[in-house]
Design goal:
heterodimer, A: alpha/beta, Rossmann fold, 2 domains, B: alpha/beta, Spore Coat Polysaccharide Biosynthesis Protein SpsA, Chain A, five-stranded parallel sheet, 22 helices
Chain lengths: 336, 567
């Protein structure tokens, strides 16, 4: 990469930071407990809208993993999500009524909060329907991973988004608050992902899975991206560019090995496809606040009316991280 | 009850754990001398000293700055060892350990083990040019160059200065002609050897030399022990494995059983929050003293595998943390597969025959324009791979690597031809796992049998011939790594069984006998004339080879009879 290109990326990074700075006014603190954050704490950042039913399990899952503090942006929920979060002792909540789309799908808000609160911390940026899974997560806390990453001088950690879905129609099994969503959405596609490299930012672009298979077989290039880099040792000069798909400076995107080896990596189990999904898809379609003219939700709406079954004969049932490791969806790398 | 083993402990972080371990050693009667890095904040250091103040046989020495890879660690070890030898005259062996070391067996077992070997020095020590351990390219140069800059803090200066010395051809001479040795920095030396090293009149010269050696803690004692020891066991009693970047592997709670069964005396490095390990090994483990030798084989294998995974990875896997550059894949696909071109057109029921003959999974044309023709007409196959042409054609290469990865352990076979998506040609041609067999020109057979207007046939034949010609050019290029066999159709139909047998043998089917049943050649009566007609129309079909028009049926056997084979 030439000096000119590198300079342009630097400008771009500054632009995203200025944008995040400007968007700070859109956030109003409801519960600011950031004074509790101690050096070395692991932080979770998240944006949400109407996810009250998912929150109890979400918080429990990450607390058990060893996350110390949650910083959440509530985008004008009407189901009491904000109040629920404000009651939690380890959660700081901000509220906004502004456009999700114009905050570049929440990235600007989180970039600002991370800039303010995450400097020098390991940060995990996840949606409420994403469950992070890393090698040895059943026997070692998240801090074991971040300590190891620190010792190995690794600053960012990749986790592919793995779409989980139930067997049968989406509405068949209602989801209750506090329940493990994987009890219902326990199936996934194990081997139909395609990867291309984004030369400009150095990140990988991954597509595939049930969404490509069922909703986008005829226009696969429009299928949603599944590459994510959610775990980063944050520095206030960093910025997410597009969701957690890529970051600047671009060195943080090199979470993969190019010479045949495997770097350690995890998976984000994406439990979007629950009974709550149909209603949500309808609402999001009306709001039109999602990526690329909400093309994804339009495709869902069209297909969901017919037969919303994502399960097929070759779907795999989720067991644990070791299963995903054997299937090649994540890797231990040299962590043993 | 002073023991015959003295412990020198170097600590720099997780002082709480270090305190626990120091107490454990002391409880068993071992004198302990502790050195802490100067980087430890003074308040923490004071609290640490205070917490251990009740132990009579424990000493602290002046703190040095111990930067990784520099002299500080050696000088701390020297000073601590001197204190140990001076203050505890009963000590026969001195064991160098760190704050993140954990004794795995009762201390008494270690004491007994050493008491049985009163003259043995346990120190890993090998000459530099005989071991490939070093990581980062510096082995002999560790001794012949000077390293005044710390690698961790002044990487740039470090590298530039090394480059400069190389360019100028600067070399240092070993003092007194000593032979440099290297090995694990965790040793256990006898009083005799250690005092000989420390009291050597030449020591100032050696110290001066090693002060500017790169990572002297892995070479100072390792080299000098060779001068004085009467009996060196070149291994470390501390289990400590290094990964490919040269940093130690870390042990966690889930390694408990593994560590138990290793029978090693001390392990390093333990994650400070591994509560279960500390509880298990520092508790009252007054078991029956075992007489076993340390046996770290299983742990070695696990860590060796981890390094392998990191450096070589799994062949044929493409994922978000393994995306090799082209030609760096260690194998484009994860297993062997076969591609047949023209056979399905030439033989009747070819696919089912092939499946019977090989026991492999035989697909149709996977790259057909409408859909991927999976075996058995399935719409989705292993790994939830879809037959959609759109998904496949977005990344034809990933489609193939996914298929082969998803069906690991079962050989895949598919048909290919000029009507299919040609984007995959180069990938299979360059893949050593591919076995490609081509009967060129066989695409004309379906045209010959179809009931279409000749003008249309002619146009299509011209197109297919052009496409197959290009494909064959690729298969004949010098970059090819696949096993490729090409026959012209005329050549092949003369004697089809011999080449078939060779291909099937190479696939290594379940039966290693001769083929019992031959596939049935399709009727070719009038095919020669068909080709002649094309020629007469100005389209020259040449990929089939020489099919004489008059012979028509280019078959050695009379029609209607089943061909059979001689066993």
């Amino acid at each position: 990469m030439g000096a000119w290109q590198s300079y342009r990326l630097r400008l771009q990074r500054k632009r995203w930071r200025i944008r995040a700075f400007r968007k700070r006014r859109e956030l109003r603190a409801i519960a600011d407990r950031t004074a509790q954050i101690r050096p070395g704490d692991i932080l979770v950042f998240s944006t949400l809208r109407n996810e009250r039913v998912r929150l109890p399990y979400f918080l429990k899952y990450y607390r058990d993993m060893g996350v110390n503090h949650f910083l959440m942006v509530d985008n004008d929920s009407t189901d009491g999500s904000a109040d629920y979060l404000a009651e939690q002792p380890d959660v700081s909540v901000w509220h906004t009524t502004q456009s999700y789309k114009r905050a570049r799908f929440g990235v600007d808000w989180l970039n600002w909060l991370q800039w303010q609160h995450a400097h020098g911390h390991w940060t995990l940026v996840v949606d409420p329907d994403e469950l992070f899974l890393y090698p040895f997560c059943d026997t070692r806390p998240l801090r074991a991973l971040t300590d190891w990453l620190d010792a190995s001088s690794i600053k960012s950690f990749s986790a592919m988004l793995l779409d989980m879905y139930p067997k049968g129609r989406l509405n068949d099994q209602p989801y209750a608050a506090g329940q493990d969503p994987l009890e219902i959405a326990s199936w996934f596609d194990s081997g139909n992902y395609t990867i291309t490299k984004n030369k400009r930012f150095g990140n990988l672009w991954i597509q595939g899975g049930p969404r490509a298979r069922v909703f986008f077989p005829d226009q696969p290039e429009r299928a949603p991206a599944l590459n994510k880099i959610p775990l980063v040792k944050w520095d206030r000069r960093y910025a997410y560019v597009s969701s957690t798909h890529m970051l600047l400076p671009r060195g943080l995107n090199l979470v993969y090995d190019e010479w045949g080896g495997e770097k350690a990596s995890g998976v984000l189990l994406h439990t979007k496809f629950l009974s709550t999904f149909t209603g949500k898809a309808q609402e999001e379609l009306e709001r039109g606040q999602h990526y690329s003219g909400s093309v994804e939700y339009k495709a869902y709406a069209a297909t969901l009316e017919e037969n919303p079954e994502l399960w097929c004969k070759w779907s795999e049932k989720f067991i644990n991280w070791r299963q995903l490791e054997i299937l090649g969806l994540m890797s231990k790398g040299n962590w043993a | 009850m002073s023991s015959n083993v003295g412990i020198v402990m170097l600590v720099h972080t997780a002082l709480g754990r270090a305190e626990q371990v120091a107490r454990h050693w002391a409880r068993a009667g071992c004198p302990v001398v502790i050195h802490a890095d100067r980087k430890v904040p003074r308040a923490t250091w004071r609290a640490f000293r205070k917490s251990l103040a009740d132990l009579p046989e424990l000493r602290f020495i002046t703190r040095h700055r111990c930067e990784w890879g520099t002299w500080g660690i050696v000088s701390a070890s020297q000073e601590a060892a001197e204190v140990m030898l001076r203050d505890f005259p009963d000590v026969r062996h001195v064991y160098l350990a760190s704050g993140s070391c954990l004794p795995l067996r009762p201390v008494q077992e270690l004491a007994d083990y050493l008491a049985e070997r009163p003259r043995t020095d346990f120190i890993e020590s090998a000459t530099t040019h005989e071991v490939p351990w070093t990581v980062g390219g510096l082995d002999e140069e560790r001794f012949t160059l000077r390293f005044p800059f710390a690698w961790k803090r002044h990487r740039y200066l470090f590298d530039r200065y090394v480059a400069l010395q190389r360019r100028l051809g600067l070399r240092r001479r070993m003092p007194n002609g000593i032979v440099p040795h290297m090995g694990s920095q965790w040793w256990c030396l006898t009083r005799q050897t250690l005092s000989a090293i420390l009291e050597d009149p030449e020591r100032p010269a050696y110290d001066r030399f090693f002060r500017q050696v790169w990572i002297p803690d892995e070479s100072y004692f390792q080299t000098l022990a060779r001068l004085y020891s009467t009996n060196i066991e070149s291994r470390s009693l501390t289990l400590s494995k290094f990964d490919f970047q040269g940093k130690p592997h870390i042990f966690y709670d889930d390694h408990l059983q593994l560590l138990r069964r290793s029978d090693c005396f001390v392990a390093r490095k333990i994650w400070p929050h591994a509560d279960r390990l500390y509880e298990a090994f520092l508790g009252d483990n007054a078991g029956i003293a075992r007489q076993t030798e340390p046996n770290p084989g299983k742990i070695d294998r696990i860590f060796a595998k981890a390094v392998d995974r990191r450096t070589k990875g799994r062949a044929g896997l493409y994922m978000h943390s393994r995306f090799p550059n082209e030609d760096w894949e260690n194998g484009m696909t994860s297993g062997q597969y076969s591609v047949f071109e023209g056979f399905a057109e030439l033989f009747e029921d070819w696919e089912s025959w092939l499946a019977r003959a090989t026991g492999a999974r035989v697909h149709g044309h996977l790259y057909a324009p409408e859909r991927a023709e999976f075996a058995g007409g399935q719409r989705v196959i292993n790994g939830a791979l879809s037959d959609s042409a759109g998904l496949r054609d977005m990344n034809p290469r990933a489609f193939l690597t996914n298929l082969i990865w998803n069906t690991r352990g079962e050989r895949q076979i598919f048909q290919f031809g000029p009507a299919d998506n040609q984007a995959i040609s180069w990938s299979i041609a360059k893949d050593p796992n591919a076995q490609i067999s081509v009967v060129s020109g066989a695409w004309a057979v379906p045209l010959f049998k179809s009931n279409r207007n000749f003008a249309e046939l002619r146009r299509e034949a011209a197109l297919l011939q052009k496409v197959e010609h290009k494909h064959l050019d690729i298969l004949r290029s010098p970059w090819v790594k696949a096993r490729i066999r090409i026959w012209s159709m005329a050549e092949f139909v003369e004697a089809p069984m011999e080449p078939l047998q060779a291909i099937i043998d190479e696939i290594g089917s379940r039966q290693l006998r001769r083929l019992a049943e031959a596939p049935k050649l399709t009727e070719l009566d009038g095919f020669g004339q068909f080709l002649q007609n094309l020629k007469n129309q100005g389209m020259h079909p040449y990929l089939m080879g020489d099919f004489p028009a008059d012979r028509g049926l280019a078959r050695p056997m009379p029609a209607g009879r089943r061909p059979y084979l001689v066993k």
